[in-house]
Amino acid sequence: MTLTLTLDALTDRIVAILRRAGLNEVQAAALGGVIAAGERDGCKSHGIYRIEGVLRTLKAGKVDGAALPVLAEDDGRAIIRVEARRGFSTPAFDLGLPLLAARARELGLAAMVVNDCTHFSALWPEVEAVTAEGLAALVMCPSYASVAPTGGTRPLLGTNPLAFGWPRPAGHPYVFDFATSVAARGELELKRRAGEALPEGWAIDAEGRPTTDPEAGLAGAMLPFGGHKGSAIGTMIELLAGVMIGDLTSPEVLEQLGTTALAPFHGELVIALSPEAFARGRPGDPFARAELLFGAITGQGARLPSQRRFAARAKAEAEGVTLTPAEAAQLDRMLELGLD
Ligand code: NDP
Ligand code: PYC
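That is the input. Now the predicted structure with pyrrole-2-carboxylate docked in place:
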């Protein structure tokens, strides 16, 4: 039987599983929130399916469930730093957000560096949290080597997500959030579980030949989106959110982790920008001008990114989140067994 839960009830179940597995209150609450939000917004590749990976990573000792993030000493500059101390990224982001927002309003722009975190989540929850402060946001992070650079044949880059948000005076912000591979790795894993073929152009096998077999694609390499353009953007993310912030690049993550079966450990870069500050002294209100652009896009019959997600959210908020029988049984099992 399917199971329909309110968002709060689903979040409580996830938090209970994570607490039982040994996550402290701060981390369990932060992770429970983003995983439940993934289900609510119809983002299955970063919803409850990720809990197993979180539990495996904890059991392998590759993430510290007891860690509490700390804000590095603030020197009043545009760069603020949060040490996740080998815990998950989400509570570190939550800790740094108020200072990031205050600093971006004061200086026009500011960046939050999160170091030494385990990261498995979608980036849009963070982008939306920054836009809720009236700021534009750019968020990015590496993952682990799983994507061949265009022209190459072996995993090197991560699926390196890039997300952007723009605050809007009414309603939801403009948000896009995507892997710089053709699809997130989670999508391949879900296709493998469902016994479905991959669309062409997603992956190559271990010999570098195009494949539509998810097993072969996961064992081989994923491909960047948009050919050389995605390959270059993925590389930029390795540089900005790996090398530049003194944290691991995707090949280094894989070398240290030794597997793609666990959640990756690296850093994250969050940039917050004040549209008012950038537009000061120039003609026109940036928010009003942005609305004209969005209107022109939808006026052609195109949809804005995140529109599907916001529609799924509205439905879930009205009717609850419905889990398949297999998903409901899996949650029960995880609640019963904890880390076993
Ligand atoms: P998708 O390709 O599913 O979606 C990418 C973006 O494009 C979304 O904002 C989506 O909005 C939008 N979009 C899709 N179709 C259209 C359309 N026809 N018109 C306009 N906009 C459209 O995402 P990915 O599979 O690439 O990534 C999924 C998630 O995986 C992301 O949230 C990402 O952060 C996460 N991820 C996390 C990683 C990590 O290391 N933590 C690594 C890689 C990915 P909508 O949602 O409304 O469809
Ligand atoms: O779906 O590609 C992905 C991914 C990697 C790490 C977290 N999500």
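The mean pLDDT is 96.
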